[in-house]
Every structure is written in structure tokens, then in C-alpha cells.
Amino acid sequence: MSGIVVESPRSPASAGGRIAPQYRRNKGKGGNFEMLAWLFMRLSGVILIVLVFGHLFVNLMVGDGVKAIDFGFVAGKWASPFWQVWDLAMLWLAMLHGTNGVRTIINDYAERNVTRLWLKTVLYVACGTMLLLGTLVIYTFDPCPVIDGVSTVSSFCPAP
To answer: Which stretches of sequence are listed as region Disordered (predicted)?
Structure first.
């Protein structure tokens, strides 16, 4: 028993002889970013709970429930700047929260620096694309469209 050497759990050679990923060995580099990312996950999670449950309550409990969700319902909500900002905040926080979580998983499980670089590049491009498209949909959505020259007049649309 005296010949057995037990590595310190915090040493780079722990975890079955594998060397810890580069980002973990250099605690001085990016330490502040990782702390801010950790804090962002906690704060955005709490805010997302409020945004998502508010969204579900308005969409499912107020009015006729899920049967009432159609183009007119969404158009009526997005005719109000309040709901545009609400849904935009929910979109941005959910995308950034999820992207940060996947970034952490990539850092934990991608062993090669090149693999980590490409996975995070794909992740960031996908996140940016979804944020751009989602923001455009919310702010360029026309709640009072004219289809084939016919104005679809709803209660929230101004008279033609």
C-alpha cells in the first residue's frame, strides 16, 4: 500500500491521466470572463423564468387558451411595443443563455483546440443568425397586412 501514489484532485494529470484542457490550466486568462458568464447564467435564468411564465400565462390562460393562438392573436400582441420588447428580451436571453451553456459544454468535452475553435465558431454563427432573424421578425412584422389588395381589418388595425 505504501507504493501507491494518489494524485491531487486539482492536478492537471488527474482524471485518469488525462491532462486538463488548456482553458482550465490558465486560470489567470479569462478568469473574469468565466465568472461573468457564470453570473450571467444565474441572472438570465431568473429573468427567463419570469418572461417564460408570463408568456405562457398570457398565451394559454388569458382569453380562450391555446385555441385562440393564430395570426390575429400574434398580430394583436405584436401591435403593442410592450409585447415586442417582452418577446425580444425572451428571445435574446434564451439564445444567449443557451449559447453560453453549450459553450461551456464544448470547453469541457472538446479536447483539441482546433475542434473547440470550430464548434464554437458554428455555435456563435448559429446564435447570431437566430438573433438577427428573430429580431427582424419581431420588429418588421406587419400586424395589418394587405393581401391581394384586400386590407385585413382587425380590431387593432387602423381603419383603411
So the answer is: 1-20
